[in-house]
Amino acid sequence: MTLKTKNNWQTKKLGEVCWEVKKLGEVCEIERGSSPRPIKSFLTDSPKGINWIKIGDTKGVTKYIHQTKEKIKPEGARRSRIVNDGDFILSNSMSFGRPYIMKTMGCIHDGWLVLREKEPNIDKDFLYYVLSSDLIYKQFNNLAAGSTVRNLNIDLVKSVKIPLPPLPEQKRIVAILDEAFVAIATAKENAEKNLQNARELFESYLQSVFANPGDGWEEKTLGKVCSDFLQGINTATDKTVFVNSGIPIFQAKEIGIDKLELGNCKFITQDKYEAAAERYKPQIGDILYNNIGSSMGRSIEVVWDYPFTIAWNVMRIIPNRDKTIPKFLNYLLQSPIIFKSILNKAKGVGMPFISKKDLIEIVVCYPSLSEQKPIVSKLDALSAETQKLEAIYQQKLADLEELKKSILKKVFEGEL
Q: Which of 33, 37, 78 lies closest to 53 in space, CA to CA?
């Protein structure tokens, strides 16, 4: 590989093919989106509305955006930026730097940039692969301004350098990448199916346990099976000040199904924790239950002994130890049959919520304490096996993503 300067363009010779290195602003027109304000007044359910493209519309999308969840009125569209079928759009804030190709028309807000090729000697799929590569993302990452909410302006994006071989070479590369990525997509689909099957196997067994109560099982409300239901600290009313380290305060996002996800956990000071009421300090054997929002229904038994507290969107459920083993109660709350009953009583659409008043009225069946123990042992064993399988398939999915990055890296470093 050799580098040389020609007419202010860097070029590099890879084998017998000469690749130019151009700035993105030289090959694409780049414009920022715009948003009519206040946006809520322009949203509409009318079929005559114009697609309103949000970051959420990219969830599960790898390349093409075919549809949007929301629409805006035509008068709102006139104050926004229109994008058409075939345009590239690029997020310039939050999860910035990832490209998508439009397969419909719509409007973009100022969190998006739209890119349109200036010249005919660019294969659209090649450009997509270039923009998807770490070679470009690292440049975006280095250029992005801001520490909390990072963003890219048009001038920064224009300055990013991309490798550009002749059109026939672009098409050859695209053909190879398409074939490789189809195989990777198939492997990912199989891994995702296996992951889903592992989860469904456990849920099926959980369902069978609680949908088919045995002889002698009692039927009571949760209010009779539990000693208390306590909501966490209302951090807004309490004017809670978070710190970089200290005592963790768990929110709904930290509570997974039998696991804690602590990557973005917040903290309060030791003094704040000591001043908090005891109701906000769960103990070993209590159940932490998400009773608000999209993660409603997730729960975990407290088995750790370090101090912590909970926020308003987590409920502390204290089991009645004369009626139930904490782990049995946790599995009971996670069972599909009970979750369905909870959903039926939940209020709200965008932010579902079940109150203490409604939760304590949920009717459950449970056996004696001596019968609960072998049920818990069987569920523990199956849960552990399920988690092993999930870990295997999650690792396979991660490896496949790394393989995609590795292939793109080799391509744009001339090692294809």
A: 33
